[in-house]
Design goal:
By secondary structure, the chain is of the alpha+beta class. Helix content is 30%, strand content 27%. The strands form three sheets. A ten-stranded mixed β-sheet has the order 11-12-8-7-1-2-3-6-4-18, sandwiched between helices.
């Protein structure tokens, strides 16, 4: 890592340790050990994840953070502290303060002589949206229309509180809902002293953050297609590193010898991932413009990235509403051998009639043959060769758990009341937490920081 005191010559190395909540842990440990990093980020929040976390917190005030937080910290914390690598993560989910306390406890368990953990809060705006008469962007309805179904409301915070925590000396910064690229952009603003209205630098930093945020996707994961886009070593995929200079230009690479690949192709695919308009990528900190981005291979597993720009941030913050939507009941059963598809179709017909006969109340039903029409539909499946094995699936959306359970039960009864040769039946029923969005004036959102600390050992 480049530790020069001249900020114009510095290169900050940022490793992406996770791209979603359940991601692999070994690549993050490899980054900590061998990546020569300044920062290790863990991006672990999806739209519904935080609402599910709020449910967990309601059941237990000490919960609500990422379920793998402790395992990840046990894997990397000691190494990061020893090497001076700072961790920035949104694993706080619905309870950053509890997450920070747990990280401090893990630091004590590991025998660390010092540790400063910052919890960034303020994204939880449930009380604000409940009382403010706001309308839902998706359907124009008032937030009040959700009634008691509303679980959570979390605004997307930007970099400011993370930068403040880093300036205060935090070794670990754990947040709730922040914009994904902010986990990368905040360290860059802190290290290089970028102004919070230097829109082009913020746009370029956001470009780097967008490329890194999904971890293994840019090193060959979610990319490989045998015979067309071959990637070696996916079972030991290395996660990416961004080597970022003071002007925001970066080189994307990975630990030497790790699996996967970094190429112009992998970077371009990740650049376009979840991107609606490359000229207007809205974040809490900047409206980024990626339309002039330059992606150039400069060596094996080394891709230079530049050309991100930006313009002034908006006056509002996207806010995600989590609510109890419905219940899903599901059942599956397999058929194999000659006539498998016809027997599976008969099974679906039987369940369809049974649900009507027994009066199961549902809002939506799906009857599918996995391997035949479950993904592409019946029209695209016409004329395909008949499979030698097929799995029948029935799923329904209901207003109650009781009705959802009945759907899976009817599929299970096919064991003895359906076509010949059915096996491997499974059933499940679960509550569905769904999300909607609104735009909240940013002045109604007040981030704050709380610290958990292990004091320095006495001299």
């Amino acid at each position: 890592m480049n530790r020069t005191t001249d900020p114009t010559q510095r290169v900050v190395r940022i490793g992406a340790g996770a791209g979603y909540s359940g991601d692999r842990i070994e690549p993050a440990a490899e980054l900590a050990e061998k990546g020569e990093l300044d920062y290790l980020i863990f991006e672990c929040l999806a739209e519904r994840t935080i609402a599910i976390g709020q449910q967990a917190r309601l059941a237990d005030p000490a919960k609500g953070y990422d379920p793998l937080l402790a395992e990840r910290m046990h894997a990397v914390l000691k190494t990061c502290v020893a090497k001076g690598i700072r961790i920035v993560t949104n694993m706080g989910a619905a309870n950053p303060q509890a997450a920070a306390r747990r990280i401090r406890e893990i630091g004590q368990e590991l025998g660390l002589p010092r540790l400063k953990v910052a919890a960034v809060t303020g994204d939880d705006v449930l009380h604000v949206v409940k009382d403010g008469g706001f309308s839902i962007e998706d359907n124009g309805q008032p937030v009040a229309s959700l009634g008691d179904k509303l679980i959570s409301a979390n605004a997307y915070l930007g970099i400011a509180p993370i930068v403040e925590a880093l300036q205060a000396g935090a070794d670990v910064v754990v947040t709730g809902r922040v914009a994904d690229p902010a986990l990368v952009l905040a360290p860059l603003v802190h290290e290089f002293g970028w102004a919070l209205d230097d829109w082009d630098k913020l746009g370029q930093g956001t470009l780097v953050g967008h490329l890194l945020e999904c971890a293994g996707q840019i090193t060959g994961g979610y990319f490989a297609d045998p015979g067309k886009k071959d990637v070696a070593g996916l079972a030991r995929l290395g996660f990416p590193i961004g080597e970022v200079s003071a002007d925001g230009s970066a080189v994307i690479t990975k630990v030497a010898g790790s699996g996967g690949r970094v190429s112009a192709q992998t970077c371009k695919e990740q650049l376009l991932y979840e991107l609606h308009d490359p000229r207007s990528y809205f974040t809490p900190d900047v409206v980024a413009d990626f339309s002039q981005a330059q992606i150039v291979e400069i060596g094996p597993d080394r891709v230079a990235v530049s050309g991100g720009r930006g313009r002034a941030r908006t006056a509002t913050l996207k806010t995600t509403l989590g609510y109890r939507d419905s219940f899903i009941g599901e059942g599956q059963i397999s058929y194999a051998g000659p006539g498998a598809q016809a027997r599976a179709q008969l099974a679906l017909d039987i369940v369809r009639e049974r649900l009507a006969l027994t009066g199961v109340q549902s809002e939506e039903l799906r009857f599918e043959l996995i391997g035949v029409n479950a993904i592409c539909g019946a029209a695209m499946s016409q004329g395909a060769a008949e499979p030698f094995e097929v799995r029948a699936r029935v799923a329904g959306r209901t207003a109650s758990m009781k009705e959802a359970v009945r759907i899976g039960n009817e599929v299970e009864t096919l064991y003895t009341n359906g076509p010949a040769g059915g096996g491997g039946a499974t059933k499940s029923a679960r509550e569905v937490v769904a999300v909607l969005s609104l735009l909240l004036p940013r002045e109604l959102v007040t981030p704050s920081i709380q610290f958990e600390e292990i004091a320095h050992a006495a001299a």
